[in-house]
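pasting for ref
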Amino acid sequence: MKMRLRWTKQTLLFGGAAAWGLLLISCVMADRTIVAPAKIAGATYVGTKECAQCHTDQTDHFGTASHARLDLKDPKVGDIACESCHGPGSLHVAAGGGKGTIINPLKSPETCFQCHLDKRAQFSLPNSHQVLNGKMGCSDCHEVHKGNAVAGTGADLEGQNATCTKCHTEQRGPFVYEHGAMREGCVACHNPHGTINQKMLVARDANLCLRCHLEAPDLGKTGQINANAIHHTAEDHATRLMQGTCWSAGCHEAPHGSNSNNHFRR
C-alpha cells in the first residue's frame, strides 16, 4: 500500500513537471493571434466596414494579408480586424480622420509587440534596428495590409534581400565576384531584429564564416577559404583568425561581394 502511495506521488510530481514544460514550450512555439486588441481612451469599435469607406487602399487587399488571420469580432459591430491593431475608431470617424485619434503602429511598435513578444526582446538587445526609439517602424520592413508579412519566404529570396537593400544599398550589388551567402538571404548572417553581436550578426567573429566554410584543408588551391588553410600555410591562417574576424586585417573585407577580387577583397 505504501509503495502504491509513493508511486502515485512520483507520478504526480513528474507528470506535473512534464505538463508545465509542455505549457512553456507551447507558449513559445504557438502561433499567437493576439493578446488583446489595442485600446484608445474614450473610443469604441466601429467595425471594419466603417474603416473601408476611407481606407480602400488598405482594405481592398487585406484578405490576402498574413494579418487577415486576426479574425476578431465585437458583439455590436462584428469584424474589427483593422481596429485590433489601430484601436477602436469611433473618435477617428467623428473627427473625420486625422492624427491623434487612432493608433499608428509605425509610430507605436508596442502595438505589434502585443503579438510578437519575442521581437520586443530582440529589439532590446545591444545591436538592433532603431525601432524602440522611433526612428523606424515594423512596417518599414513588413507588409501588413496585403500578402505575406515576411518578404522572401519560400523560394523568393530576392524579395527578402530587397527588403534589406532598400536601405543598405551598398550591399545590393550586382558584384563581379558574388558571395554565395547572399543567395541564402541576408538573414543567413544577420538577425534583423537584434543580437548581442555587432552588425546584428548571428554569430561573432570568425565563427560566423566557419558555419559554412569548414572544408578540409587543401594547400594546393591558393585562395581557398576554409577552417584550416589560407593562401600560404595553415599556421598563418590560424594566427590570423586568432587576431580577429575573417573580414578584418585586410583579408576578406568585402563579405557581401567584390568587384575587384575573387577572395572578397576591395
